[in-house]
Specification:
Blueprint: E1 4-14, E2 20-31, E3 36-40, H1 47-54, E4 62-67, E5 70-71, H2 77-86, E6 88-92, H3 103-113, H4 118-131, H5 147-159, E7 165-169, H6 177-192, E8 196-200, H7 204-208, E9 212-217, E10 220-226, H8 264-277, H9 279-316, E11 322-327, H10 341-350, H11 359-374, E12 387-390, E13 392-394, E14 401-407, E15 410-415, E16 418-421, E17 431-434, E18 441-442, E19 449-456, H12 457-462, E20 475-482, E21 489-501, E22 511-514, H13 516-525, E23 534-538, H14 542-553, E24 558-559, H15 562-606, H16 608-616, H17 621-661, H18 671-697, H19 701-706
Parallel strand pairs: 3-8, 3-9, 6-7, 7-8, 16-22, 19-21
Antiparallel strand pairs: 1-2, 1-4, 4-5, 9-10, 11-23, 11-24, 12-23, 13-16, 14-15, 14-20, 17-21, 18-19, 19-22, 20-21
Helix pairs in contact: 3-4, 3-5, 5-6, 8-17, 9-15, 9-17, 9-18, 10-15, 15-18, 17-18
Length: 708
Amino acid sequence: MSELEINHVYKDYKLGNKSKFNALNDINISFEKGELVSIIGESGSGKSTLMNLIGGLDSDYTGEIKIGGIDLKTFKEKQLDDYRKKKIGFVFQSFNLIPHLSILDNVTIALTLSDVKESVKLEKAKTILAKLGLENQLKKKPTQLSGGQKQRVAIARALINDPDIILADEPTGSLDSATTLQILDIMKEIADDGKLVIMVTHSEKVASISSRVVELADGKIIRDEIKPDYQKNEHKDKLVEEKAEETTEEKGGNKPKKEKHLSVYSAVRLSLHNMWASRTKNFLMALGVTISLISMILMLAFGSGLTGYIDSLAQSYSNPTIVTVNKVDEMADDPSGGMGGLGGEIMSLLNPTPFTDEEIPQIIENINSALEEKYPNIEYRVSQDDIKYGFSAATGITKSASINFTVDGEEKSSNIFYLYTTPPYYTEEQMLAGELAGQPKLDEESGEMLGEIMVSAKIASEMGLENYEDAIGQIVTVKASYGQFPNAISIEQKCKITGIVDVSMFETMLVAYLDYDYFDSMVTANGGTLSPTSLYIQTDSEATTDTINLILSGMQGYTGSVENQMASMFTEMLSTFSIALAIIAGISLIVAMIMILVVLYMSVSERTREIGVLKSIGARKRDIKKIFTTESFLIGLFSGLVGIVFAGVVGGLLVLLFNSILGFAPLSFHWYYFLLALGLSVVISVLAGLYPASKAAKLDPVESLRHE
């Protein structure tokens, strides 16, 4: 049986005008092992086309091409890949060595695709390279070799898998005369060692050393000459070793060993070589992803840090055993009208709605009913004795309030923007200086009964005092308007400043605190009635407080304390701001993803011939995809890791800067931010690499090898 048999093979190429060009016309020929065949003919005669068909690079033909009696037409795509990997060795005129790989890696690449053990492939490659006189060139790159040396490397790569057939396309076309003779001697030695060697050539010198010459013209065989005087050379040191098929039968089994393919480790190693070869381009691409990740992590840290800071401030103005109840302004609770949403919450905060006498018993009843029905394990029940009242109002909306005072004989005045009665959870620890305001007391200096008032440091500064503590003890006149116009009640009362309030959440505002009972007496003395805007329920434990707060959250029209409302308002604003920043960071990630896609797409074009070479030595579509996908994965992984490190460094510097300027750092880094950044980096890189990888895998091997 012939090693290679070709029967009635026709090959047509479609032209742009829908016509066809007949490249091969009824080719019938067979070849045996040990032959050194030269296929000659003019350009366009069909020589290279025939070689591509024999090599399994092109399967679009009619007729039969049998290898060992098996028709290539019956092969599926994977079987064709294995055929090129095991049965065929290609030697190209332009060498087609991969420039960024060493000589050793160029030769072992075919074994790498078969996942051969590292020690085995290195031993085989070094042995073949030594026989070809290249034992001292292993670590060099192709650009460091002469033309003859490059062709010997290409021959070593063709022989590494011990194929049955060597196909050489103009193997001496770009070499000088002396080097040509060396390469021809090597090709003759390969044939004499029992391989079928088929060379496509224009050279008469090549044809003259062949055992057989086949001439093509217009796609037909016009001459098939076997030279009777061809003499084989006897070599003591054979270039090709005896072929040994490793099967499980040798180990006691009956089935051939399962075919191996490109491993993940080998794909990573190849990808690292490719990335290093284009390191500048890959560095700039990774830098873009890194910057996007740093911005995303910092935006998340700022949002979380500011939100946490505001929450901690709100918690510092609360008591775990006190439930605060405020009414929600109707506009805040109205989904169809008014300001609604955040705007309504601001109106509710600045202009609270008072409770009516009928509402308070109803709230008590609703809370107790919910405790009995849903939380029977809680024994506590709310009573009227557990409730204290509070009042708050932004005086700049429909009311007015001010403080008049004398400093060094000069009359001065300060507006009060927010008039507030002291909540029961407020302690002297939460003040900048002084003590809590209470009921009127006898002033020893003036001999008068004076009410007590606490003011913010901002009001103290309005008094022209260099130190806010100097405001403590000052006698001031408080003027306020209570109620709605035109029925507002005017109040004027002398008071003594007993403390300076820490109002960190709105420290630049003009805030004053009075005792509720004292303010109630002021309103009553002027013919009015004070209605509370806040209820403070004293519970028996923190767990009970949390439960009642949960019940209140389900009662439409009620909310927590002013501080909690402020915290909620700022948190919502910060949440919106953080989302906006995250979207911006997300857009930058999408831009980075597009950048990766473009760069990898361009890389496919730049490495088209390399892809053709890989396919000619048996690389599957899956192998090509794996190489490009691994590259995109590594780019994402490296970018993510670098981004995490730099985000940590930049974040640490910002924490130091903010602490030195503000006394606190509005950043909060969580471990899952970094994990999220790393995951996103890998995901967007892999997604960006899917299309280029698919495009690379689908490239036609014949067209790829012709690519310039």
